[in-house]
From TrEMBL:
Basic residues bias: start-end ranges: 337-347
Record's keyword terms, sorted: Membrane, Transmembrane, Transmembrane helix
Entry-linked SUPFAM superfamilies: Protein kinase-like (PK-like)
Domain (Ig-like) ranges: 374-479
Protein name: Ig-like domain-containing protein
Length: 479
């Protein structure tokens, strides 16, 4: 079985612009994933340091309450290779499901609300995704939309964050879902087209709010994850372990670990290696790759692994600076006044950032309650079909196709025939996980005549409050 830093790789993989994603099982037995970067991408000068910065920024966002990103476990080197390890399955992505027949407008709206919410949080933090498209939107087992590869494409290319590109990409995503998942509902497709235009002219937050406010245009007025969750769970079929040889864990070096001070470093001064330590530099010059220890060593662990550095002074890497600035209080220098002012400024920025993230989290909670669909079954719409003509003493099969929110339960309905006054009332049970269900009426016509006959199907319950859900079909009897 092929492994990388405790992640067991399977035979399921997909290629992206950055490299190859491989489905994996994490050390805790849960589904995860590993991205092996294309060697040409990480060979660009400064790319490895920028990747470290992007990954650490993601971790800070996650710690701050942003939940719409794929959780990152580690960024490691394995010889000449660079791997990103994530604590979440890497499939299905939105591009896998665009042509899936079961998808519906409620699912499209749920994806758009949640991706907009995450992008708003990124932009508030001064960051951007940089490569938003159906291949970087992951559908989790509970139907949530998570963004993958956040900032990685910009990192390898050396591009600054560009929120406007995210807005354009989100608008294109909305239009794509309008043409696919919402194609059966003109009013839903029109709503998604309108919010795409709103995003382009006014921004993502107004577009998200317009989508939530306009949900009445969706079938049943629902924004639901139910179909997404069911599809994602069905997608999670067991994978076969890869057949490559076991990778030597001794080669694995995390790019994110910042070594803590040891007894020797305290004695000989910061940045000075103790006599007798090895003098080879970190593997391939990647920041944080200061030795050959396993990735299982925790940041700042004392004495759990050897520390390899140049004998004498070595400069602090970008990763170390980021880690230390984000995790240690400011130390006053001899320029006391200036240091105090800088510390106060940092505290003000921290307070402002905390307030911003509090608002973001509050918005996410409101969006979640808006997206959550009711647990009870709801019939959103119905269409009735019948044969065009019927001959002497024949039986017509009238079919009613119900569209639901995917929950299970009982449906009560009536068939009304134009040749009789009393309706035919029936009840059927629908299993959960299905968004369509068919019911039938068999109508036998006798006698010699030519007549137009109509069958009407009326759903009595459960239906959206205040709405009438019914349809009819007409056929000609000739005898």
């Amino acid at each position: 079985m092929s492994m990388i830093a405790g992640f067991s790789l399977t035979d399921r993989a997909r290629v992206t612009e950055l490299g190859t994603w491989v489905e994996a099982t994490g050390p805790d037995g849960r589904r995860g994933g590993a991205l092996r970067f294309d060697s040409r991408a990480v060979a660009v000068p400064g790319a490895s340091e920028r990747l470290v910065q992007a990954v650490l920024a993601d971790r800070r966002l996650t710690d701050g309450g942003v939940s719409g990103l794929v959780p990152i476990a580690d960024l490691v080197t394995a010889g000449p290779e660079v791997w990103l390890l994530v604590g979440h399955s890497i499939s299905p992505v939105l591009s896998d499901l665009l042509t899936a027949p079961a998808m519906d407008p409620a699912s499209a709206a749920a994806v758009l609300v949640e991706t907009a919410q995450t992008l708003v949080a990124l932009h508030a933090a001064g960051l951007a995704h940089g490569s938003l498209h159906p291949g970087t939107v992951l559908i989790a087992d509970d139907g949530a939309a998570l963004l993958a590869e956040r900032g990685l494409a910009d990192a390898v290319r050396g591009l600054p964050p560009a929120p406007e590109r995210d807005v354009t990409a989100w608008a294109a995503l909305a239009r794509g879902l309008a043409a696919t998942w919402a194609s059966t509902s003109p009013s839903a497709a029109d709503l998604l087209e309108r919010v795409a235009a709103t995003a382009t002219t006014h921004g993502l937050a107004p577009a998200r709010d317009a989508l939530l406010a306009g949900r009445d245009a969706l079938p049943g007025g629902l924004i639901s994850r139910d179909v997404l969750a069911g599809t994602a769970r069905r997608w999670a079929t067991p994978s076969t372990p890869g057949m490559s040889p076991v990778r030597d864990e001794g080669e694995i070096v995390t790019m994110l670990r910042v070594p803590g001070p040891t007894h020797e470093s305290a004695r000989f001064g910061p940045g000075v290696a103790a006599p007798g330590t090895h003098g080879s530099p970190g593997a391939h010059g990647f920041p944080g790759a200061q030795g050959s220890s396993s990735t299982h060593a925790s940041p700042g662990a004392h004495g759990s692994s050897s520390t390899h550095g140049s004998y004498g002074t070595h400069g602090e890497t970008t990763a170390e600076k980021i880690w230390r600035e984000g995790n240690k209080p400011a130390v006053l220098s001899s320029h006391g006044t200036r240091a105090k002012k800088a510390a106060r400024a940092r505290r003000r920025r921290t307070v402002v950032s905390s307030a911003v993230f509090a608002l973001i989290v509050a918005g996410a909670v409101l969006a979640w309650f808006s997206v959550r669909s009711p647990a009870d079954l709801v019939v959103q719409s119905v269409t009735v079909s019948a044969p065009k003509t019927l001959g002497c003493r024949k039986t017509a099969t009238i079919t009613g196709n119900l569209v639901t929110n995917g929950s299970g339960g009982s449906v009560t309905f009536q068939w009304l025939r134009s040749d009789q006054k009393e309706p035919i009332e029936q009840t059927e049970t629908i299993p959960s996980g299905k968004t369509t269900h068919s019911v039938q009426l068999r109508w036998t016509v006798k006698g010699e005549a030519t007549a137009k006959l109509t069958a009407r199907l009326r759903i009595l319950s459960p239906v959206p409050e205040g709405q009438k859900v019914e349809d009819k079909a007409t056929f000609t009897y000739k005898c």
